[in-house]
Structure formats: structure tokens, C-alpha cells
Amino acid sequence: MKEQPPPYSTSPPPAGFNPPPPQHSGHPAPSHTVIVTTTATPISLGPDPARMTCPYCHANIVTSVESEANSKTHLFAILLCLFM
Question: pTM of the predicted model, to two decimals?
Fold first, then answer.
């Protein structure tokens, strides 16, 4: 069975221990102000791969589009041809 450590209130701090200074409540005041501005560029994607920077994680990525025709696609095309 493991021995429990002594309570903090009864043991003196070890030699050379300097407690951290007291902190103020809330966040400390900033030493300087940083203003970040961005310009919004429209993202136009199409069927061809495009190189772009992810707006969320800022990683360089290559987009891709995968499509597959199925029976619903063919049925919709037939209905359009018949009624339009």
C-alpha cells in the first residue's frame, strides 16, 4: 500500500522554493495591441482540382470533386427531357 503524502498545510516548503507572485483576477492587461486584418476573397470551386489555403487551419490543400451517376440521376434526366 502506498504511503500518502503529508498535507500541504503542515509541511514547510523545501529549501530554495520561491512561490509564484499572486495573480490578479481575470486576464492580465496586454503589453501591446496586435491588429490582424484580412481581406475576404471569394472561393470559386469547380470540377477541376484547385490549390488553395484552408480558411480555418491555413493549410495548403488541393480540392477535389467526386461524382457518380446513379439511377436517380438518370431518372431525373429522363423526367426533364419528357416534361421540359
Answer: 0.30
